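Protocol step 4 of 5: obtain the predicted structure for the target chain.
Materials: sequence only (see below). No template structures provided, no constraints applied. The aim of this step is simply to have a reference model before the mutagenesis design in step 5. Sequence pasted as it appears in the construct record:
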Amino acid sequence: MSLVLGVGLRSGTSYRELRDLVHSALGELDPADVTHVLTVEGRETEPGLQRLAASLSASLVTATKQELAAQAVPTPSDQVSRLAGTASVAEAAVVLSGAELVVPKRASERATVAVGRLPATTAAPGYPVGERDVVHRVLAERRDVRRGFLAKPVADDVLTRVLESAHRAPSVGLSQPWDFLLIRDVATRRKIRDLAAAQRDAFAASLPADRRSAFDGLKIEAILETPLNIAVTCDPGRGGRHVLGRHADPRTTWFSAAIAIQNLWLAARAEGLGVGWVSFFEPGEVAAVLDLPSHVELVGYLCVGHVEEFAAAPELVRSGWAARRPLSWAVHQEAWGQRGLPGSEPGAVIAGDAAAAAGAVRTVGTQAVRLIVAEVAAAAYLEAAEALVVQVGGEKPAADFGVLWRPARTVDEAVELGVELARDLVLQGVGSIQLELASDSVEAAGLARGVRLGALACGAAVDEPVEMKDSSA
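Step 4 output (structure tokens):
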């Protein structure tokens, strides 16, 4: 809702008198909704009125006496008409703006105020087509870049613009919990690179043999190849105790820092800079190298620099490591599981959407997965690197990416979860699934059925579920 204030005032009216009058006139209305302060031409130079508009973050607009005099007002005044040339400056200004008069004029000793509500039928305009296309182009062409960086420094003015865009990011309660540590020193960056290399080796050792072979060809960082690294940090306590919006979900602080990184990334792309986000290290180890204060947490470590080119597709897509999840799989209408793009008739996965997955998956990978559907995950299930446990019962397990918690509430939902799981695995390079049932519940059987539906629809090989005789092994 947008509000306008019509204000009539005598010369020399103080800001305090105007402030108190406006507060009284607004009553339960929110001052933050005031977008315009309207008055008669010649009064816009009054210091009290200028300060009032500034305090409301509203535009100060004027109209001529003739324009105001032409407006019909509900509470005209002969005295005001003689002095100002219109029957009511405050009300006439509101009516002239096209707003609905919701508070007739209120008067103080030297001023009058009326409040109007602008019609909500006119939406704020978007950008012209050409400018809109540029915005969408930047979003589509953003890349996580790890190759092809040039030995060319980033100019200070370019870097400042990029950081300004990052600093404009929205944040919970306007707490702006981020800071940006610029790192050019080669010795420091070499220490960070060594930490990333150690984590890369540990991750490679955890992979099945076929997946490890594919991973060997991927480049995970460009810490030394870029002229600049940027560590983006988060202070979870910035703003003190009463940060607006943070009390119910403290995670919003870290979400805010992540949005700042996305702003930085998009601005960098517009400036012709490549950005690569390095995540192959334990944040505490990097914080120690950078000597970060104990209360500050590392959110992102970015490699930034000019590049030879921006690839047409993400490297993980080009290498065949993974594929994008179609938008139609991610949009639910009104209720979870009723998938469909805007304007289409939503439907459940089990109603036939599994077959539609075939069009989204262009190639099927070679990775093999041993998928165990169980009530509760046992440690022995995860001894083999290719094992993946789907826990359909019990309480949420401790964080472990080898265990997926899928507590289906109904058999139909279990089938849907199975379809979705199979499709997502195929997008991550899985070509064959060995299904094993360590539970005799109807939900477990439904999930296994969904996995078969989803896998077959995507062209992946999948076995009939094998019942495990010993659910603890």
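Step 4 remarks: Residues 337 and 413 are 8 Å apart (CA to CA). The chain has 16 helices and 15 strands.
Proceed to step 5.
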